[in-house]
């Protein structure tokens, strides 16, 4: 099958690599978001998907919007049979959806119809789900509403960050996506409409939403930090400055909400229930470090509170 692969971030790379190595499918081009400015040097960086395509000499398409006439004309010239999609990052117009004969098949990192939207893995961790997974579905006009071809499941471990979980789903989902295209081409796989019950949404998590509230129970704090690690990154305010927080451990001690207490066993912070022990953290302008090392150097005043 001739495919134009659409994707942008690192979690899309395992799927693209699988299609590149496939003896059955030919990647005739890659669709990805335009190069973005990043880092202190403010340099233009290729997306991970574009970088992999460059390594293999695959043409890379980077329209600002996939509705641009020039892009649509180029897509028609390429005449793909199917366009597999993994976290491309832009809405596809109907004019683009109509071009490949087998449509655009998306790999979404949830068990649809649960957690439709931009941040399904973060939402699953934050909600305390025990099981999640990935789904392949035919893209249509609605937000992740198309009929489903296949699913895989994955257990969420108690220490999983969103990054940990997404890494496993990206690897397992790559096989699911390839198998889906195989079945579609063979005519052995039919898409099934999503159920109307069990729908939930996972909007993109903003930096402000990643601020940790210590007036919540310890379990909620524990889950939220894991859910926003590594991106956009958990943080709290200390003396007017942002302190980036890594995953924490729940303990049985109790402290007032947000109060920091430094002990030989570690740095504790109070929540609405029991305290949490800080792990790694990052003060402004410094690298991630052990919380106890930070506290010893910071010489915190008694009664210091994280807000």
Automatic annotation (TrEMBL):
The reactions it catalyses are: L-methionyl-tRNA(fMet) + (6R)-10-formyltetrahydrofolate = N-formyl-L-methionyl-tRNA(fMet) + (6S)-5,6,7,8-tetrahydrofolate + H(+)
Q: Which CDD domains match?
A: FMT_core_Met-tRNA-FMT_N, Met_tRNA_FMT_C
Annotated organism of origin: Nocardia thailandica
A GO term for molecular function: methionyl-tRNA formyltransferase activity
Q: What are the residue boundaries of the Formyl transferase N-terminal domain, all occurrences included?
A: 1-179
Report keywords, A-Z.
Protein biosynthesis, Transferase
What this chain does, per the record? Attaches a formyl group to the free amino group of methionyl-tRNA(fMet). The formyl group appears to play a dual role in the initiator identity of N-formylmethionyl-tRNA by promoting its recognition by IF2 and preventing the misappropriation of this tRNA by the elongation apparatus.
What is the E.C. number?
2.1.2.9
Annotated family: Belongs to the Fmt family.
Superkingdom to which the source organism belongs: Bacteria
Name of the protein in its database record: Methionyl-tRNA formyltransferase
């Amino acid at each position: 099958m001739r495919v134009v692969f659409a994707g942008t971030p690192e979690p899309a790379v395992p799927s693209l690599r699988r299609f590149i190595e496939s003896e059955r499918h030919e990647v005739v081009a890659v669709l990805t978001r335009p190069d973005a400015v990043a880092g202190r040097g403010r340099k233009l960086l290729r997306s991970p998907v574009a970088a992999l395509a460059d390594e293999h000499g695959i043409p890379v398409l980077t329209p600002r919007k996939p509705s641009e006439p020039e892009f649509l004309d180029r897509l028609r010239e390429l005449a793909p049979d199917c366009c597999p999609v993994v976290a491309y990052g832009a809405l596809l117009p109907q004019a683009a959806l109509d071009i490949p004969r087998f449509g655009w098949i998306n790999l979404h990192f949830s068990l649809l119809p649960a957690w439709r939207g931009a941040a399904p893995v973060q939402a699953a961790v934050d909600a305390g789900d025990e099981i999640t997974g990935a789904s392949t579905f035919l893209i249509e006009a609605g937000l992740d509403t198309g009929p489903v071809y296949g699913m895989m499941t994955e257990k969420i471990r108690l220490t999983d960050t969103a990054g940990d979980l997404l890494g496993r789903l990206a690897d397992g989902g790559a096989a699911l996506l390839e198998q889906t295209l195989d079945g579609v081409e063979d005519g052995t796989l039919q898409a099934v409409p999503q159920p109307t019950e069990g729908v939930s949404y996972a909007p993109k998590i903003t930096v402000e939403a990643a601020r940790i509230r210590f007036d919540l129970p310890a379990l909620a704090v524990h889950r939220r930090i894991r859910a926003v690690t590594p991106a956009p990154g958990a943080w709290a305010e200390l003396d007017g400055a942002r302190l980036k927080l890594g995953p924490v451990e729940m303990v049985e001690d109790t402290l007032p909400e947000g109060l920091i207490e430094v002990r030989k066993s570690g740095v504790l912070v109070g929540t609405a229930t029991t305290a949490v022990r800080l792990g790694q953290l990052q003060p402004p302008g410094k690298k991630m470090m052990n919380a106890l090392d930070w506290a010893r150097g910071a010489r915190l005043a008694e009664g210091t509170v994280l807000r």
